[in-house]
Amino acid sequence: MDADHIMHSIMGRTPKILGSEKYSEFAIFVPLIEVDGETHILFEVRSFNMRRQPGEICFPGGKIDRVDRDAEGAALRETSEELGIDRKMISAVQPLDYLVSPFGTIIYPFAGILNVDVKDLDPNKAEVEEIFTSPLRELQMKEPELYNIEFKMEPEKGFPYENIPGGENYNFQARNMKEHFYYYEDKVIWGLTARILHHFIELISDNK
User: Fold this and answer.
1) For residue 162, what are the contacts with CB-CB under 8 A and spacing of at least 6?
2) How far apart are CA 198 and CA 67, in angstroms?
3) Which of 96, 124, 155, 187 has the maximal Cβ count within 10 Å?
């Protein structure tokens, strides 16, 4: 196969994240809602009956299914199902930066407005233990606490050190990640939710 034929075979393809077919893809939604004339962010507390991360604070969202037209469609579907509202009550949806986690997932966050009163929400009790809101202004005034997490490189038994420069003394580049923590009243917002919250706050603060 000549070089021209080789390059023609990959012409016009849309690049994606290398290896992404092995990742699980999730979409989440950062909901803005008006409470007593002030803009709040709405959070969920995951049901204590959930298999994964019971009782943790999160945004509405979940895994992207084949029925979803795209990541935004998945975020809106999950939000409407979890909060018991019609999709028509969600407006001004905008994408945030997506995140490739070190745990085999790609997260597509979106933000938008819930055009509904908090008291009219009907959370799905199978997934949502409770909901609460925090004034956006208050969250903007807080600096999150940051804690470093290091991921150690531990090659499996039988790793062929003899085939790489430096052998067993090879300088593997360990990765680290900053965990964000926000505190609001008796609630602790941390992990992925806090990272996306921080990203959103930075975005809107930069565009004042």
Assistant:
1) none
2) 30
3) 96
Give, for 140, the enclosing helix (H) or strand (E).
helix 136-141
Secondary structure of residue 141 in the 3-state scheme = helix
Whole-number Å distance between alpha carbons of 178 and 176: 7
Please give the Cα distance from 87 to 113 (Å, whole number). 11
In order of 88, 91, 97, the CA distances from 105 in angstroms are 29, 27, 14
Give pTM, 2 decimals.
0.87
Residues 59, 44: Cα–Cα separation, whole Å: 6
Is residue 3 a contact partner of residue 14, using CB atoms and an 8 Å limit?
no
Supply 94's token pair: 């905008």
DSSP letter at 194? H
Tens of pLDDT, residues 6-52: 999 999 988 888 888 889 999 999 999 999 999 999 999 999 887 88
Render pLDDT for 125-175 as a digit per residue (tens, 0 to 9): 999 999 999 999 999 999 999 999 888 888 999 999 999 999 989 988 878
Asked if 84 and 163 count as a contact pair (C-beta separation under 8 A), the reply is no
C-alpha closest to that of 44 among 101, 114, 92, 98: 114
Check: CB of residue 133 under 8 Å from CB of residue 118. Answer: yes
Alpha carbon distance, N-terminus to C-terminus of the chain: 55
Which residue in 62, 101, 97 sits closest to 201, CA to CA? Answer: 97
